[in-house]
Amino acid sequence: MTALTLSTAGAATLRADALVVGVAKGAGSKSGDLVLAPGAEAVDKAFDGKLAAVLETLGASGAEGEVTKLPAPAGLKAPVVIVVGLGTVPDKDDAFDPETLRKAAGSAARALAGSKKAGFALPVTSVEDAGAVAEGALLGAYAFTAYQGGENSLAPKGAKNKGPKLPLAEVALLGTKPRDKAFKAAAERATALVEEINRARDLVNTPPNDLYPESFAAVATAAGKEHGIKVQVLDEKALVKGGFGGLLGVGQGSAHGPRLVKLAYTHPKAEKTLALVGKGITYDSGGISLKPAGHNETMKCDMSGAAAVFAAVVTAARLGLRVNVTGWLALAENMPSGNATRPGDVLRMYSGKTVEVLNTDAEGRLVLADALTRASEENPDAIVDVATLTGAMVLALGNRTFGIMANDDAFRTSIHEIAEEVGEASWPMPLPADLRKGMESPTADIANMGERMGGGLVAGLFLQEFVGEGIAWAHLDIAGPAFHEGAPYGYTPKGGTGSAVRTLVALAEHTAAGDLG
To answer: Rounded CA gap, 180 and 168, in Å?
Structure first.
């Protein structure tokens, strides 16, 4: 991954491939004017105080994410200046908010793909700002290249495949205090967090012929050994013995059997335990209720919830958080075959409840139900599940916002506030009791489908049935933001995004600090 350093060098003297500075739109009486952000002083001086005028001549507007490249004048060691827009300048007493800095740093880092080193002189007025710039730059400097750059059999004989352009190799963060413990801690946190987010992105982007339940479990096992996390893998025989009917029912149509993976990070002084449950459908064809044409191509992303949980547990271990964090990865591949579960079949879940399967494409809630029941047996202080669960949530909230449901309003509010704090768009959603009636079954205890309208909320109500009594629980439906099919923006790449990892890690940090009661 891209290296991160805290630099004592000034912008004018730093030897790098490029310098990154910020520019904003003026407000009030200066509306329409370009205002250079703090950190750009040395660069502006090298331009004889005319950097803003040069940018205006080139048509720069200061809009968020806008990137302008300039050849550096004499007086700067770096040959290129990258100017990134920060949006409207804040009130004189307010600094740019962390998410604005995060996005700007990400946009600049993407524009610097192929470069060896860049100095980031964006406005840093606090440790929090430094952490945000570091996160954004490292998140923006991402590329999934595992399947590119090999021999090209279609190229003319003797031709060389140069391979993909690699991400920016080093981010030098200017305007910080490298010897200050708080700044060092912020840099270390950003590095650990983003390394694990990028690992989650890699898992989401890995094609399903290489990532299936057994291979995902192997990745988790290896990470556990590296970071002192206890890992337990239940294979098909163990799932049969334990009565995990949801996982087995979803996975029985595939040549790749299901797995339930438990990752347990413990701290000797922890007073709270947080359980995280992730949907890990490594490929979702819809099963017998086959998805229509055009809906299968990105279904390798249906394990994004499990990837987020995995990344969050490993990050908590790397940061040494004073909280116990247990991750449950409910892994299966949903395929149609002569062995597959049929619409109309009844599954006996790990909880003992029976479920009539009316639609085999509503499979995520089945594997999560087993994992939620198993997680509840350990009586954690709270459970949060994460899943690319419903298209209905995408229709409700769009492609960039995830929904939050919970059995406790205060807990739901806390998670929403934490998500906003770390820059992940989310929205609290209700669990209307009247929608439960639609899942009544004449054959089983409950059906896996209910009313079509409000389908995302129906899924949440189904999951709630499998949460242990008295345990605070929240459900994050990340179906929209987990996989980005459009052009990259800010620090968000095309493909897997690592959605919800920052929220889960921050939740663990708040829990460790005792902020959640």
So the answer is: 26
H/E stretch holding 483:
strand 483-484
- Decide if 77 is catalytic: no
Hey, what are 355's tokens?
């479920």
Instruction: Of 101, 164, 165, 140, give the one whose Cα is nearest residue 4.
Output: 140
Q: What share of the chain is helix, strand, coil (3-state, %, to 5)?
A: 35, 20, 45
Say how far apart CA 261 and CA 282 lie, in whole Å. Answer: 14
How does pLDDT run across 92-119, given as a tens digit for each residue?
666 899 999 999 999 999 999 999 999 9
Beta bridge partners of 328: 262, 277
Is 412 a residue of the active site? no
Nearest-CA neighbor of 367 among 482, 264, 245? Answer: 245
Q: What is the pLDDT of residues 36-52, one digit of tens each?
A: 999 999 999 999 999 99
Q: What is the pLDDT of residue 149?
A: 74
Terminal alpha carbon distance of the chain: 36
The 10 Å Cβ neighbour count of residue 218 is: 13
Q: Out of 291, 348, 353, 494, pick the active-site residue.
A: 291
Interstrand relation of 402-406 and 382-387 (parallel, antiparallel or unpaired): unpaired
What does the H/E/C string look like for 66-128?
CEEEEECCCCCCCCEEEEEEEEECCCCCCCCCHHHHHHHHHHHHHHCCCCCEEEECCCCCCHH
Indicate the pTM of the whole model: 0.96
Phi and psi torsions of 121, nearest 5° = -110, 50
Nearest to 499 by CA among 382, 393, 411, 370: 393
CA pair distance 393, 457, nearest whole angstrom: 8
What are the residue ranges in the chain where pLDDT is below 50? 152-153, 155
CA distance 222 to 235: 17
Where does residue 293 rank: exposed (0-12), middle (13-18), buried (19+ CB within 10 A)? exposed
Tell which residue, 117, 107, 73, 69, has the closest CA to residue 87.
107
**Of 330, 253, 320, 240, the residue nearest 286 (C-alpha):** 253
Q: 365, 374, 412, 502: which is the annotated catalytic residue? A: 365
Enter the DSSP assignment of 147.
T
Q: Tell me the C-alpha to C-alpha distance, in Å, between residue 333 and each of 213, 236, 259, 347.
A: 7, 13, 10, 17
CB 376 within 8 A of CB 468: yes
Residue 451, helix vs strand vs coil = coil
**What does residue 261 show for φ and ψ, rounded to 5 degrees?**
-110, 130
